[in-house]
Design brief:
The chain is an all-alpha fold. It contains twelve helices and no strands.
Length: 327
Amino acid sequence: MISWLGIIASGALNGTFAVPMKTARGWKFNHIWGVFSLLAMMVIPWAAVLLAVPDWRLTLSSIPSNGLVSLIALGLLWGVASLLYGLALDLLGIALGYSIQLGLSIAIGALIPFASVRGFAVRTVADVVFLVGLAAMVAGVIVCARAGRGGRTTAKDRGKFRLGLIVAIAGGIGSPLLNIGIQYGISLLPRSTENSGLGQWVAWAVFLSAASVSQAAICFYRISAAREWALFRGIGLRYDATLVLGMSIVWAISIFLYGASAASLGKLGTSVGWPVFIGMIVITSNAWGVGLGEWRERSKADLRRMLFGSAVLVVAAFVIGQARAGW
């Protein structure tokens, strides 16, 4: 029960961390996401490791070199996907951006193991339940996308929406790499008591640091190309820096809490935990989106459509989780 509460809490935190991004005073997306990448994915994880894992060097040396390279490669790829993830939130808003990307994340994250373990043949009731959940997930994504498009009457708005939709789809496809990286990092550690708990943090810190490098590099390159370095010293510096620090702390806590909670559920932990984690992010982010007035100028029909689509995503997440638990 405690593990499930941890997953629920981590999802709520992850659905909240990006909210302050909308209140930045001087920094633009690349400034926020570049600094956030370094703090949330490198500085904070390694600070946690240094403070809580006294034998972290021994744990790191126990990871096979080829596995370490693969873990870093996964991190670099997920870093790009996570950057797209943040950009989609900036283009589409919190409610819609989260819904589309997380819906795809669950679908892709469920389809890959299904195809590798079960093939594409339907053999059991669990297989049928999975396909039903997957179909519901796709339907929920479509409903949310149509709701987000409603009310965009100008060519500029429609163009921004189309760009945001493309970015969100790309980010959603790459998003499950986080879950894969967490599970893969655990699998690289020796099966010993000392590495079954906080020792996992070392592998996760390696994975997240690699993601930080690719994300921050892209963000700072775009800042340099636009010659916007001066914004780091402009109006709202202290406020924006504090804002990003808060975002980073909340996000890092959510990821480490999810990883620890999912790992404690056993071999199927990341399988059954991922849909619940994502479902809580959808619920929380949509609640914030409505609360922040992102849908205030839309019609009530669009709002109802978005809420219905989000509900479908949440139900589908639990259906997929139940199906995967039965494999």
